[in-house]
Amino acid sequence: FDRGMTVDLYNHAHPYLIRRSAYERTAGWQGFADFQLAGEDCGIFLQVEEVAEVELLDRCLYHYRLHPKRTSHELGPAAAEEMWRRLADKTLARRGLPLERISEVQPFRYRRLPRPAPSLADVECVVPFWESDREELTHGFRRPSAARRESLFVLNGSSFSQEMEDAGFDQVELALSAPGPVAGVMRVEVHRASGAPAVCEQAISADRPLMKFVHFDLEPPSGWPDDLGRARLAVSFRPGPGNRDLPGLHVFEDGEGGQALLLRLFRSSPGFSRRQLERCLRSLERAGLDRSAIHVIEKRQSSSANKNEGFRRTSRPLVCFADDDVEISRPGALEALLAGLEERDADLAGPRIVDAEGRVFCAAPFFDGPFPKPRGLGEEDQGQYGYTSEVPWLPSTFLLARREVCQSTGGFDEGYPGSQMEDVDFCLQARVRGFRCVYVGESVVTHLNQQRNDRFSENFQRFRQRWERQEELLR
Q1: How far is CA 474 from CA 4, 93, 209, 334, 365, in A?
Q2: CA-to-CA distance for 384 and 377, rounded, in angstroms?
Q3: pLDDT in tens, 447-457
Q4: What is the C-alpha to C-alpha distance for residues 68 and 457, in angstroms, rounded to an integer?
């Protein structure tokens, strides 16, 4: 591949196994009627490469008997070259690539056809939406900077507590990790000025390294005071029988002012997420998109499935994927993205993302080993990341992609449950095919970050298994 272009078809005809779920996303076997229906093997390979991973087992597993009357001998080299040319041209058309083949034999060479500079009229937007009545509350330990998350506080038969502002929360998500197998019970208590504490206990179990946010629903006891002030959050972990020698359960630590838990607080707020969605849609319209160009996919399925379904409803050259809790709060954000895409001859573009408090949420993404990370997390946004650069991945929080990228990769991998890591995977799938990602710091959007699933550990394991051997992509 080279930015979606099929360069070499010579090695597409070996015997192979195809996963049925991938095959069903293709148009199936298609040979050429004027060549005894030959060419079907190269053709199916080209289609499968657009929707799934292909792995070569690089060792001799069989012997191939060349029959003197086989079809390839009857057709001859000239027919094979003609079929390869047709397949290459057909693939260009199917992927919507603005290219023209300029060589007759492989490896094929192409030239780019002129295309106009992208404009807002070329953009359609896909917004996946999962309705929830949970409102996230702002508090001091919500999202510390990356520099303050280097150490861990270990809970193993011990407890930990911290004082905090009480914003009327009734749900807690606590960031946990474990370096290996762990089993036991986590207990969360919230104490107010008077009355009994609100308590929730939950079994925590993992047979492999764990990183996740764990959700606790608190049942406020009768007699809790109505006035809000300070609260004390207490957390403890009891290892299960026979598990005391296992690695402890870890809690992320904020070094500012001492140890503090990295957690998220929520309260029940009927209709909250739908109000956030309307806020997002209004901002997209203010940015210059017609409501007819915005596709909201409201289904109880993975974020990948919603994005792919939304893409299938689009037809314009550029597709913008936006979370339902994003707001374009600064003018010119889309225009800056379009300019960065054009100036850098890139295929995917993403903005600088800040939170509602004006802190950086994601800037100039990079990899730290196999871990995808944003720059500047938690820093006050003072324009320090207002530059443009090529990057290894971009978040789909707000992501502008050329149509041919989705056509050439099959879109977002629906094997990732929930809504984490599928965007990093999508960017690497694009880069494998030669497409380029660019971070455009001059473009700024606000992410309220009201939704988060607890499948990070599972999704990261899937991501790592797929990509850790391709180190050149993780930098």
Answers
A1: 20, 31, 21, 28, 11
A2: 12
A3: 987 555 657 77
A4: 55
